[in-house]
Design brief:
There is one protein chain. This protein has a 6-stranded mixed β-sheet, sandwiched between helices. The protein is of the alpha/beta class. The chain starts with a strand and ends with a helix. It is globular. Helix 1 packs parallel to helix 8. The protein has 2 domains: 144 residues, FAD/NAD(P)-binding domain (3-Layer(bba) Sandwich), CATH 3.50.50.60; 98 residues, Polyamine Oxidase, Chain A, domain 2 (Alpha-Beta Complex). A hairpin with an 8-residue loop joins strand 5 and strand 6. It has 8 helices and 17 strands.
Length: 309
């Protein structure tokens, strides 16, 4: 089949790769300018060179045998490395978390900066509006649940309702670089005041740069301050980080706030959704568990249901 996938994150890319291996012709459409999604890595210019921040997923684990094998392959290819500071089974992409999505999308047809506002059924096929005039035999939605529901509404109300039932918690994130080392002994701070997570991003494997931190607020605080200005949010997160340090924070050379409206999801357990009559489906971590591994597995599960060409 000629298949369109809306969303080129881990779930969409995993599904596309598996379907292409089965002989299908697959095109991914993503509103972003490049690989990442919630595996995003932001690169900015600092005073002494580029500085990178993993401002989405901070690390991932591997438990399912198929995903363990995939991670071992990534490690062998130099795009993943263990990060013991986050846990005995923690891994990160190298040189950034988005390296995993970049690797998965190699050899796939991807349309970047292609925001899909609606999918429409035409003569037994599918058109994606406004990004494509081509007709596809099948369409798969691989976006966060909140974005999937409106796309699915007119075509499979049950599928749309399943998406609406999976609500994601928001997360305010600050990306901050300093001109000296922050006086915190470890590289990670968890669950302290409004900080759900703070990590010395520059200490991750494969990062060679100045002192850089990613600070993520708790879900409750993010929800209460969702519409606040980014500058004020960064100030609040820096104050919480300073409370964990043994001396005042060094001067900042980069400070950026980013609001994730859809971060950690309260997931269903369907794995993947597929309507064989209409040839429409959905994949994502929201259908399994809020983990990188779950997104990858969900994409594979749907490819298995669709089967070979």
């Amino acid at each position: 089949m000629k298949i369109a996938i809306v969303g080129a994150g881990i779930a969409g890319a995993s599904c596309a790769q598996s379907l292409q291996d089965r002989g299908h012709v697959v095109t991914l459409f993503d509103k972003g300018r490049g690989a990442g999604g919630r595996m995003a890595t932001r690169r900015v210019e600092g005073p002494d060179g580029d500085i990178s921040f993993d401002h989405g997923a901070q690390y991932f684990t591997a438990r399912d045998p198929a995903f363990v094998a995939q991670v071992e392959h990534w490690a062998g290819a130099g795009v993943a490395a263990a990060w013991p500071a986050a846990g005995a089974d923690a891994w990160v992409g190298t040189p950034g978390m988005n390296a995993l999505v970049k690797t998965l999308t190699e050899g796939l047809e991807v349309e970047w900066s292609a925001r899909v506002d609606a999918i429409r059924r035409v003569d037994g096929g599918w058109i994606l509006e406004p990004v494509s005039v081509s007709t596809f035999d099948s369409v798969i939605v691989a976006t966060p649940a909140e974005q999937a529901a409106p796309l699915l509404d007119a075509h499979d109300p049950a599928m749309a309702e399943a998406a609406r039932a999976c609500r994601s918690a928001p997360c305010w994130t600050a990306m901050v670089a300093f001109d000296d080392r922050v006086a915190i002994a470890g590289d990670i701070v968890r669950d302290r005041d409004i900080l759900g997570w703070a990590a010395r991003n520059s200490a991750k494997p494969g990062r060679d740069q100045c002192e850089a931190w990613v600070l993520q607020a708790t879900a409750d605080w993010s929800r209460a301050h969702l519409e606040d200005a980014a500058d004020g949010v960064v100030d609040a997160l820096l104050s919480a980080l300073e409370a964990e340090a043994t001396r005042p924070l060094p001067a900042t050379v980069v400070r950026i706030g980013h609001r994730w409206r859809y971060a950690k999801v309260a997931a269903a357990r369907d794995g993947a959704l597929w309507d064989s009559g209409q040839r429409i489906g959905a994949v994502g971590d929201w259908l399994l568990a809020p983990r990188v591994e779950s997104a990858w597995l969900s994409g594979r599960m749907l490819a298995d249901r669709i089967g070979p060409d």
